[in-house]
Amino acid sequence: MSKGLREHGPVIMVKRNGNKEMLVSDQYARRILTEDKTFSFENGMAKVLGINWLINLHEGSFFRDLDTIARDFSGRRLNQVIPKVWPIFERAVSEVAAAARHKKPTDIKPILHSTLAEVTITIFLGQKYVNPEYSKSVIALSRDISELMGLVPNKPFCARKLPLLWQIYTWIRIMLIRIPWDFGRKFAGELWTDISAKQTPCDTKDETIVEYLIRRYASKNGYVPIASRIWIIVLIITIAFVSVHQTVATIIWITYYLALHPESQKAIHSEISSIMSSQEGTTFDSSDMAKAVVTDSFIREVLRMKGDTINVARLTVKEVEMAGYRIPKEIKSWVLALLKHSRIELEGGKFEVINWYNIASVPPQGRLLLEDYE
């Protein structure tokens, strides 16, 4: 795709999975990512993930609710649960390391799935829900949602030739059969009972996602309407998918690049060891993780090289002119992730961890993190 931009200009049209998509270079990155009235983030995400039907439910609050959870709940909850989830990750690392010592080929994917499922339950649902049966349900639900969203590779012949019929078949098979089955009567029943409790939690110090959402949706007498209870279930399943499927995919990519760049392994190990040593005897929290500049830069560069980051997808909400071309309405528009930092003429395909060393987590007001700024 980067070759296409080099040879044919800053805007090209490509065809993927039977859909036309527009790909732009850094020249038009700012315009696509900031002109909300022309290029919609919510519609773009919904189109990519195949959930157009979902964003119209519950007064169109799907993405707003997820954003609120991320800002208002996840950050606050993270510091509280780090001491609880850290041993889970250590256990997984020990399992992989033990296999490596015996020089056994190891498939890390199932290890990561079980690890992230347990971590997700611990963070969002609390210790009450931590057990192997519920972890299996979370893994299965994550797999179901990824298939529903069309993220499963090697699609069958029917999916490629009859995409609309395949989408309808997939929706019925997963929404009406697989998800209810994989959720499990026990897990779903316990979750529904907790959501239906006519008592609004007052203590927010160690609240779970269930208690947080009850507090948001309950009436003054503590009653949560049935429609809101169902919506809470939808949000929890979505969080499980993002936390397990997407995180596992990212970790696998990071592991792959660590294997390709052993020099980065040494730098990251040295940095993390130094931070851990300085915090010995104290609680490790997110402020300590923010000190891991080398690790952060490595992850950013891996995500850049991954190249299919969906949060740079937009959907045209009206006809628009760009680079002399007229782009129709409802065309997916992408800023190629490979160009997010190193521009096309500066070897954007070359892996350079140092690219991100001097870039803050949040750019100055009015600037994009995609740009190279001092």
TrEMBL record:
Keywords: Heme, Iron, Membrane, Metal-binding, Monooxygenase, Oxidoreductase, Transmembrane, Transmembrane helix. Its main location: membrane. SUPFAM superfamilies: Cytochrome P450. GO terms for cellular component: membrane. The keyword Iron applies. The chain crosses the membrane at residues 230-259. Pfam families: p450 (PF00067). InterPro entries: Cyt_P450, Cyt_P450_sf. Its cofactor is heme. This is Cytochrome P450. The lineage of its organism: Eukaryota, Fungi, Dikarya, Ascomycota, Pezizomycotina.
